[in-house]
Amino acid sequence: MKTGDSGENFALVVGATGISGRALCRELAERGWRVAGLSRRAPAAPLDGVETVRADLTDVESVRSALAGLDLTHVFFTAWSRMATEAENILVNSAMVRHVLDVTGPSGHVRHVALVTGLKHYLGPFEAYATGETRDTPFHEEEPRLPAPNFYYAQEDELWKAAERYRFTWSVHRSHTIIGHAVGNAMNMGTTLAVQAALCRAEGRPFVFPGNEVQWNGVTDMTDAGLLARQMIWAATTGDLPSQAYNTANGDLFRWRWMWPRIAELLDVEPEGYLARPRPLEEQMSGAADTWRRLAEREHLAEPDITRVASWWHTDSDLNRPIECFTDMTRSRSAGFTDYVHTLSSFANLFDTLRRDRVIPS
């Protein structure tokens, strides 16, 4: 049996209710791992084979109490907390990583820690998202950090310090926009677009692309949550890998001018592409909360609170970047991770799941 696929491994998934954490919990459980899923709140639908652990990551004593008695071998950190400024992001999110590793590391049993970050490593923080100095596409892992404060860098610093102190290997996984299922997630383009389409269909209006001309015409890629999970497990269980960062994307490239009508077809709405100026979702969907609540009641949907299923601000940010964004996957491909996901199929599978779970109408 391959190392990492046996029951002797006990994984902590931090951020288990999020898009990447949820997919990772499922993947680990299916492989026979013992899994503890840590989150601040209880999951809406607990996953089979996953022990639920609740803690406030900003409080080290809360983390210590929650993890007492768990003999963990692997830690997968997929959580973050959005704050008002990047200075606050750095303070809070680095502390969250530090607290978990200072509680789990001293046992000496943790063999590997994997951290999920993203393309803000190359684009800069939300406060100056892709507007200041950025790296050229495709993004390469070995490029130096940008000369700007960034909570991803602070999280990496905490990881490296803990790895040296507690003697575990590590990996960082820089995903692009993640396609996956998790209600209540702060960054969820797939579900956001599905909710946009449901509202457009209910009101008889077109499905309008919210982004700018650069994103409409430029090359991009995305990351399936399942692929991210499989890359994290691969990095954690392949013994001869160095501790390093990996870009994480599906492997295909597309332009939104090609993808948008195909997503519209999957969601049964009439597409309308970029026309003259960006039309952000925060503008298009202003006042949509009451409409969604009525739609949810009429269609017996699972979540009537639109803020739990749509993150207009995040999709607007991604689709209004002033540069095209895609990543180089040579590092992980050369090391043996050759998984691939067709992005349109990833969207299609997500939309089927959302219909099945009554997140959007059938």
From TrEMBL:
Ranges for domain PRISE-like Rossmann-fold: 64-361
Domain of life: Bacteria
Pfam families for the chain: PRISE
Signal peptide feature range: none
Protein's UniProt name: Nucleoside-diphosphate-sugar epimerase
Record lineage: Bacteria, Bacillati, Actinomycetota, Actinomycetes, Micromonosporales
